[in-house]
Write a structure and sequence with these properties.
By secondary structure, the protein is an all-alpha fold. 82% of the residues lie in helices and 0% in strands. The protein has one domain. The longest helix is centred in the first third of the chain and has 38 residues.
Length: 441
């Protein structure tokens, strides 16, 4: 049993559209705020990263849940899918409430320690005050994503993507600039628009699941009750992905802390390039998620011998997609950069960093597939250790060239090349040498 390229793409493209919608929030904020001012642009970068660092706790849990849902789906144990989904929702809503309270209390002090500029500090705190309300919606949204990806019914994510994107773009424009009778709120408006987009996604997921999913078949027709045994088994897989994603984002935040000390202009450049970087990562993340769930389904269906062949096939698709995307950006760099700023100097100074990220993406297109394939086997602890080791080198490199040597932003972005090269090498070594084939979940 081996999936065809058509089957790979049929699962991947709805995930791609869903990821596109989720990232439209960050991209739209950056594009609009780039026309407001450098302080607002820098604050949205720092505030957005802090939000994502907390959000990755939920995303990591949902990834572990997705692996278990995909395994049960591959085994034909459909009624065991729903309880995983419901336990995840109960757990993440509890975590959202706890983290919301902690962040409201501690975030100003944390931001003060991390940001040296008073202007960016004040703006970041204003942004986060409103942005953190999104926890209650986004933490549940990731479980809907885990459900539909796990059962390979990903086309529903396309509709969700469109709704989320439309709500965010409309409210961003209306609230940031004060259009259609709304007050002009600037950075605060961007935060509120993001929360409302996540709320719209939550409502859609709830209504669609109730109306169009066979609740009885997937065990979703029972009122959720806390099952500590099942929750413990989910956490046995998820705890490693939760830590993994948090460490990954926290290290990315170290990058922006180093750049922030170079100046407001450098931070603005980094945020623009990061936004384009996120867009380039979308097809790679979609195919990586596909690799994750297809590997788990394949193992559940008894196709362990075909796992490496599957990952190789998906990585080829990923590489070609990235070559096309990077090629267009490499040929027309100013066209893409002009989306984010009309400052000619800022635009010109961003081009070298854009080329560096383009090269990093070529390596990332393959590295992410094999790395996520490891998680798909259920060996999330191994994935955690592999990424942690890679991120140690990444952090040391950033500290040396960014914090200590005060290198230009484009040189700082070369850390992404180092990260993906090391991740690819370590993933291939693990898959060839380690005993991952008999992992039970």
């Amino acid at each position: 049993m081996l999936y065809s390229n058509k089957e790979i793409w049929n699962v991947s493209y709805p995930i791609l559209l869903a990821l596109l919608a989720q990232n439209v929030i960050n991209v739209t904020d950056t594009a609009f705020l780039g026309h407001v001012g450098e302080v607002e642009l820098g604050a949205s970068a720092m505030g957005g990263l802090l939000y994502i660092c907390v959000f990755t706790i939920a995303f990591g849990f949902s990834t572990g849940s997705q692996i278990m849902i995909a395994r049960r789906n591959g085994e034909g144990r459909y009624r065991d899918v729903g309880p995983v989904m419901m336990q995840g929702c109960l757990f993440l809503l509890t975590i959202a409430a706890i983290l919301f309270g902690l962040c409201q209390w501690a975030m100003p002090s944390v931001v003060r320690m991390l940001i040296s500029s008073d202007n960016i500090y004040d703006a970041t705190c204003d942004f986060l005050h409103w942005r953190m309300f999104g926890f209650f919606f986004s933490f549940v949204n990731v479980m809907y994503r885990a459900l539909y990806v796990g059962i390979t019914r990903t086309k529903v994510l396309t509709i969700n993507a469109i709704i989320m994107a439309l709500v965010n773009v409309f409210l961003d424009y209306a609230l940031i600039f004060g259009r259609f009778g709304f007050p002009e709120m600037g950075l605060k408006g961007a935060a509120i628009a993001s929360v409302m987009a996540e709320a719209a996604s939550f409502i859609f997921g709830l209504v669609y699941t109730w109306l169009y999913v066979d609740l009885k078949k997937f065990g979703l027709n029972r009122w959720p009750q806390l099952d500590m045994n099942l929750l413990g088994r989910i956490l046995n897989i998820s705890c490693f992905t939760m830590v993994q994603y948090f460490i990954s984002m926290a290290t990315w935040f170290v990058f922006f802390m180093a750049v922030e000390r170079l100046g407001q202009r450098e931070l603005a450049i980094a945020n623009i390039i990061r936004s384009i970087y996120i867009v380039l990562l979308i097809p790679v993340q979609a195919l990586s998620t596909t690799a994750n769930t297809m590997v788990s389904n394949l193992i559940g269906a008894g196709g362990i011998a075909s796992v490496m062949q599957l990952m190789k096939k998906i990585s080829k698709v990923s590489l070609w997609v990235v070559i096309i995307c990077v090629g267009w950006i490499g040929i027309f760099p100013k066209l893409f950069l002009s989306i984010y700023t009309n400052d000619a100097t800022l635009l010109t100074e961003s081009i070298s960093s854009l080329y560096v990220i383009g090269f990093a993406m070529l390596v990332a297109s393959v590295a992410n597939i094999y790395f996520n394939g490891i998680s798909g086997t259920g060996n999330t602890q191994a994935a955690l250790w592999l990424e942690t080791g890679t991120l140690v080198f990444y952090a040391v490199y950033i500290f040396c060239i960014g914090w200590w040597a005060q290198a230009p932003v484009s040189i700082c972005f070369s850390a992404e090349i180092l990260y993906y090269v090391l991740l690819l090498i370590s993933s291939l070594i693990y898959l060839k040498k380690a005993k991952w084939q008999n992992k039970k979940i």
